[in-house]
Amino acid sequence: MSYRDGMQWKTGDTVTLHTPFGEKRARIAGILSSTNASSEAGSLGYIICSEQLFTESIGAAGYTAVDIQLAGSGTDETVSAIRSLLPSDVSIADKRLSNSESQSSYYTGAVFIYGFLFIIALITVFNIFNSMNASVAARTRQYGVMRSIGMGAGQLYKMIAAEATTYAVLGCVTGCVLGLPLNKMMFQFLIADKWGTTWQLPVASLLLIVMLCFGSAALAIRRPVKRIGQLSIVDTIKLQQ
Questions:
Q1: Residue 15: which residues within 8 A CB-CB, separation 6 or more?
Q2: Reduced to 3 states, what is the DSSP secondary structure of residue 5?
Q3: What are φ and ψ of residue 67, in 5° steps?
């Protein structure tokens, strides 16, 4: 099924086709934004179906249009050979150039978007490192006092790790609460309203973000903990006096 203004088609809907052999029902498997058909669309728009469904519905085996997709090694000689096999009254539309431009535009947009996301990820990692370093530096004297009354290095590491884990959990929860509705809204506006694709929870992206946050938090506490562990208890207490 191809998209048509005014028709609120969605993937999974059922359409009824009135054919010479009676009514037939077909389920919409997907919505295309455009089609290469040259004839005027009917009331339902353009319907793209399998050869079996076409034959069962129309009862004819002829073709109005044949789409040929060439491999990357396809050259002008290949197109010329195809032209020589067809009658002179058959029109041929070579869309290799426009498809190449569309693909280049897609790659350009992908580089821009994913580059922007990569920069955001770097900012997130650096912010986690800076926050943990600042938090540990502000409590260095307190950690020294705790060590002086019997706290071991392992207990100190667990306490700082618990703080970093709390930051990571709160950050992930806040990001999901604020980000998922925005993601759904943008998906609905940019994709679902045009192609009828249903929004799905981005599980893989969420797992990647959670792993990035917790991994960054785990790495962020290693340096300050090691630094405090190398100082004597007296030096740790005097460090901020």
A1: 1, 25, 26, 28, 44, 47
A2: coil
A3: -95, 130
- Rounded alpha-carbon distances, angstroms, from residue 200 to 90, 193, 197, 208, 218: 43, 14, 9, 16, 30
Following DSSP, what letter does each residue of 52-95 receive, concatenated? HHHHHHH-----S-------TT--HHHHHHHHHHS-TT------
Closest CA to 1 of 200, 187, 194: 194
Residue 126 above 60 pLDDT?
A: yes
The residue to which tokens 């089609």 are assigned: 35
DSSP state of 45: B
SS3 17: strand
Q: How close are the terminal C-alpha atoms of the chain, in Å? A: 74
State percent of the chain over pLDDT 90.
1
pLDDT at 62: 63
Cβ 220 vs Cβ 129: under 8 Å: yes
Whether pLDDT at 112 is above 80: yes
Contact present, 1 and 47 (Cβ < 8 Å): yes
CA atoms of 184 and 200, how far apart (whole Å): 8
Tokens at 41, concatenated: 């669309």
N residues, the chain? 241
Question: pLDDT tens for residues 69-108?
Answer: 777 666 778 778 877 877 777 777 777 777 778 788 888 8
> Rounded mean pLDDT of 170-190?
87
